[in-house]
Amino acid sequence: MAILRIARMGNPVLHKMAEPVADPRAPDIARLAADMRETLEDIGASGLAAPQVFVSLRVVVYRMIAARIPEGSGLAPVPWTVMVNPVITPRTEAKVAVWERCLSIPGLHGKVPRYPEIQITYQTLDGDTVAHDAHGSWAALLQHEGDHLDATLFPMRMTDLALLAYNDEPGPLAADIAGGGPIDPLFLDLVARWPARDRWFP
């Protein structure tokens, strides 16, 4: 296994539609998934799409750990999962804006409209087809990673760029947190560590 380099915003690989995987059981797909998992473990992140590691194939590796689940969301941790050729189908017409970060856009976060309920269908490394529903931040994570397969980065989904901010100046996020509501603990921590928080939001 290997720790892979992450492509950053501006690299052409992130703006290229990923190709379907012909055989999910192929050894090179298993190796790719293993390397993507090791890369995520090294970084301490939740999800990664193959184009982010310079492989233009429709492969996503992700997990949801308890420390990243918003309080009161009703979500449970999700173990390491490999999705080959995932397809997302919205379960609702309306979207809900959620805060997101991206390994390919270091130092920034933004609020992105996402479907709160989806169905996702994908193939496993054994070639089996899996389909299940997801909601809340789980659904948002899957949509975020799925976007990478379609050459889309989260700022391209944003409808209000005033909600795009640096991680060390999380003013819009702090204002949102002050208003209440379930938010990924990662973003709560960003605001808790902001030295100027009390000046702007006493």
Describe the protein.
By secondary structure, this protein is an alpha+beta fold. The protein has one domain (12-194): Peptide Deformylase (Alpha-Beta Complex), CATH 3.90.45.10. It has helices at 27-43, 136-149, 154-157, 171-178, 185-192, 197-200, and strands at 47-49, 59-64, 78-90, 96-100, 108-114, 117-123, 129-135, 164-166. The strands form two sheets. A five-stranded antiparallel sheet has the order 1-2-3-6-7. A hairpin with a 7-residue loop joins strand 4 and strand 5 (108-114). The radius of gyration is 17 Å and the shape is globular. The termini are far apart. The model has no long low-confidence stretch (mean pLDDT 96).
Set down the secondary structure blueprint:
Layout: H1 27-43, E1 47-49, E2 59-64, E3 78-90, E4 96-100, E5 108-114, E6 117-123, E7 129-135, H2 136-149, H3 154-157, E8 164-166, H4 171-178, H5 185-192, H6 197-200
Antiparallel strand pairs: 1-2, 2-3, 3-6, 4-5, 5-8, 6-7
